[in-house]
Hints:
With 334 residues, the protein is an alpha+beta fold. It is 31% helix and 21% strand.
Amino acid sequence: MEKQEIITEMDGHEIRLSRLDKVFYPRSGFTKGKMIDYYVQIAPFLLPHLQGRPLTLKRYPEGVEGIFFYEKNCPAYRPKWMKTARVWSEGSQRHMFYCVVEDAASLVWLANLANIEMHTSLSRAPEIDRPTVIAFDLDPGSPATIAPCCQVALCIREIFACLGLQAFPKTSGSKGLQIYVPLNTPVTCDQTKAFAHTIALQLAARYPDRVVSDMKKSLRAGKVFVDWSQNDAHKTTVCVYSLRAKERPTVSTPITWDEVENCLKNKDPELLVFTSDQVLKRAEEMGDLFEPILQLKQELPELSALECIQSAPPAAVRSREDKSAASRASGKRA
Length: 334
């Protein structure tokens, strides 16, 4: 079959696009062209979250049901206008040159390479050891679903509320939930990682029948794994608004705390599953719910401050339905 190619211009750059009718999501008929169109439309909301952040590519040349591979070094055949970030790799003992997406043209060029998922650093280059956020990845072990993740997410929100900090939820676009706590103040990965690990350990100690902090997969059955390890200078996490390579073109979607509570109440995982078309509509109607991640400045407390968790009622997250909880659910301080 002849390889069809079209040439388009974006941000003053010429981009060659190929195989736009290639079906990337066979079970839903979602094509490569539709994937690129999604990224073009979501770019105003996505690009601020990609600015300056080293990007690990996750490429699916034959679509989501085919082989895939990760790519840390930005391809050598990249256009001259594609920005890169020079990052030292302890494992390889050499510098890696990650792609950095700062305009729609770069986003489209990478999408044309079948880079379905966007996995970014929690830091911006060149200060790779200076994260701007703490992240928790809540992963349900089968047969658990995203619903119990919601309960753990609300616990994490309560912990940070106790510390005077705000937290914001998003779906992973897969089966789990992620909680981001914006900092945007001077801090190191060692500090955020230790802080996140301590919270995960305390949650596992408090709710041993529901939560696990150990990374062994054999321990996760029916429980929620609180993954604290992503708070590392050498790891990347799926970016908000990124597509995921699942049966449907689902997206890592910013959500409200009201939606988290509603999913927990109804125990319906589908309430927190959003496809590309739904996310575009949400963004148009609700704006960027993750904008505070970029703008809100919060200082990381000392580890000793986590003693307040010990005095908090174990059932606080289930029993608090007062005005302060409602205020936090709407993104305001109690």
